[in-house]
């Protein structure tokens, strides 16, 4: 990217910083011939409509503000596949850098920084904009003393207060309880973040700390806010009260917006200054040394004392000595009687002596300056004060990254950090970030991925699909595309099970932001037995299944031409699978039993047991046990469908 010309106008010079959504470069605006900061969205996010909208939102939000404490936005556009944002370039550092360097700030410094931050926030709130990501990293301290708020990437209009997951893109250490518990944000959420930031400046540490983000979030929502003076007793009571007011758990108990808090801050500043004891003290009578006076000044009423006449220390006399002092014109004589003023000879000698002293001090001053310049050149050129650029070691193995940083004269240490994207055992980056300039010998933390944070998996089976997806997002996992399958034991639209990235059912724990696939029931496969093949195929097609012709077999229960049996091509059945349709040919044929010569009662029972109906004319005067069968129609041994009617004759 270095050296690239963006949109035919902005020449990229060097990289300034890298964040989760974009990288910031120093560039030259060739049209207006000025330096600008150009923020370019990461390439893998360019196709994500949500991130692109947030990127454009930053430009719109910041462009609506014209305030000396808000970073100006000059331009926004698209060059090929890159979305970019052009901002005011402010050489300097962030408030986070200052806190790392000094640990904590004085009361006066804290008030100055907060006055600027609240001024910029007040302008945003007046314009109906909530910053939603206020933290020391987004407060810029320019080399010329200006203090500005940056990074309105999460800003939203005050009326659009539904956060639903996006609010948590802000830093957890500065999120208000309502953002963590209800997902809503307004101007009072920015006030809460400002209060946390003010506490950190006064104390040198955040009020709530923990190993896991969820632990910190729990403290924000439930633990009482400590007062800054508990950790730093020198903090005035007025600032204690202001921090507690800004960080109240209930939004209604905080200042309504930044303007209200700014007014209270300035009132507190006046109260703090007024409460300090006066440094005015009674001064004793002073006697100036003799060489303070000059011949051509003796007649003047008002005398200007040059630097060369202040080489002797000021002598202090007690009040009783001052009362005995005799003044000759403008000269002062010591106690003990009047003394005449010095003559021209003495004054000339004193002038010569003064010139010699002045020459000596000038030579000494030149020598000291030369030594200081030489020492400074060594200190800042090759000594401990020299600057080194931290290389980008992201993606390397930890040992290789440590070796690279050590070779540059830095002091690297490793620190494990969970990351949902970078593989475990691989370097995520450094703190300070790559391409940042630090002094030789500075400590650099190499952040090594421990893989995704392991989080508990909520119970998803038995929920409807929408509720299950909401539970997945709340638990900080990623919702993957759902799968559907037929299941006669689970109602349609209900989650059967949840699968991990490997396609296996999830256990009790899973990696942060890893994908979860829901398997959702479509209900049972429709029953098409007893339907004609065409009817069965239409029924199956309505639910996404395909009916195919199978075999034709005899069935004693299903009439000829109807489906008597189905078979499935998959288990479980999913949309698009095939269902084989076996069609009935009616009952199977059976041979007619041979009952010729048998008595009527035995023959009748045999024919009925064989599944036939009988047609006969048996008179009432005949005895069933004596009459014998003489024939059947069809004849014995003939194959006829079971259930057919036989005509029986007898004598």
TrEMBL record:
Q: Does the keyword Kinase apply?
A: yes
Q: Which GO terms describe its biological process?
A: negative regulation of fatty acid biosynthetic process
Where does the PASTA domain lie? 385-450, 519-585, 586-651
Protein name, as recorded: non-specific serine/threonine protein kinase
Q: Which domain of life is it from?
A: Bacteria
- Domain Protein kinase: start-end pairs: 10-265
- Give the span(s) annotated as Disordered: 331-351
Keyword Kinase assigned: yes
Which top EC class applies here? Answer: transferase
Q: Which Pfam families match?
A: PASTA, Pkinase
The regions listed as transmembrane in this protein's record are 360-381
Q: Which reaction does it catalyse?
A: L-seryl-[protein] + ATP = O-phospho-L-seryl-[protein] + ADP + H(+); L-threonyl-[protein] + ATP = O-phospho-L-threonyl-[protein] + ADP + H(+)
EC number(s) on record? Answer: 2.7.11.1
Name the Gene Ontology molecular function terms of this record: ATP binding; protein serine/threonine kinase activity
- InterPro entries assigned: Kinase-like_dom_sf (IPR011009), PASTA_dom (IPR005543), Prot_kinase_dom (IPR000719), Ser/Thr_kinase_AS (IPR008271)
Alphabetic keyword roster:
ATP-binding, Kinase, Membrane, Nucleotide-binding, Serine/threonine-protein kinase, Transferase, Transmembrane, Transmembrane helix
